[in-house]
Amino acid sequence: MRKNQHISDADLLDLFRLGENDGTVLLYEKYYKGLVYFARQIVDHAGEAEDIVQECMVKLFNRRGDFEELSKIKSFLYVSVRNACLNYLKQQDRQRISQKELLYLTEKGDDTADHEMLKSRVLSEVFIEIAALPDQCRKVFQLLYFNRMSTAEVAASLGISSQTVLNQKARALKLLRYRLSEKGFLVMLFLFKICFSK
Q1: Residue 194 phi/psi, 5° resolution?
Q2: Of 28, 48, 59, 198, which has the fewest Cβ atoms less than 10 A away?
Q3: Above 60 in pLDDT, residue 190?
Q4: Residue 183: per-residue pLDDT
Q5: How far apart (Å, rounded) are the C-alpha atoms in residues 126 and 89?
Q6: Angle at the Cα of 180 from the Cα atoms of 175 and 185, rounded to 5 degrees
Q7: Where are the alpha helices (DSSP H) in the chain?
Q8: Residue 192 near residue 172 (C-beta atoms within 8 A)
Q9: Tell me: the pLDDT tens digits for 83-122?
Q10: Which long-range contacts (CB under 8 A, 24 or more apart) does 3-7 make?
Q11: Spatial CA neighbour of 76 closest among 18, 16, 21, 22
């Protein structure tokens, strides 16, 4: 049959609907190049355009009994190819967005992890130095900053005057700043001032 490729549309349709190989091949040859050109205008990728057209031709073959006119087959193919191309572009956009989001979250995650590590190191060093403060300085500092007690409350708790509390607080802060600075923790000293300024 393929020797005579100038068969009528009606005969071509009949051959295709019957699942005849000649009819399928002739129909494929009739529309394939035009569909690939059409798809390529949308997706701008030759390989993807060809894959999309081939998938749509397979869909057509699986529904070959549904069509009674060749014009309906042509419409089905072009609509299917157009929709498949648009779906492909949407999928590409989603992948690009996902990649950007993943990159953003990864970078943000790295920043957060670095921040938490630095914060943990700062607090570790601060606690070491707090523990090494003179006894009264340490007690005043802990009650003020950890227990969130007022100057008057600390004074009453320790049985000392409010002025002594203020003096011990100033002494504790001075010692802590000095010792952190001596260790070379300039960033830590900055964060310490933010955390414990009162």
Answers
A1: -70, -45
A2: 198
A3: no
A4: 65
A5: 55
A6: 160
A7: 9-17, 21-43, 46-62, 70-131, 135-145, 151-158, 162-182, 186-196
A8: no
A9: 998 888 888 877 666 566 555 545 554 455 555 555 556 6
A10: 5/29
A11: 16
- Which residue is listed with tokens 């648009």? 86
Polymer length of the chain: 198
Residue 155: both structure tokens together: 């004074």
**Three-state DSSP class for 198?**
coil
Q: What is the pLDDT of residues 30-73, one digit of tens each?
A: 888 999 998 888 888 888 999 999 999 888 888 878 888 888 88
CB count within 10 Å of CB 149 equals 17
**Burial (Cβ within 10 Å: 0-12, 13-18, ≥19) of residue 31:** buried
Name every residue whose Cβ is closer than 8 Å to that of residue 76 and which is 6 or more positions away in sequence.
Answer: 60, 63, 67
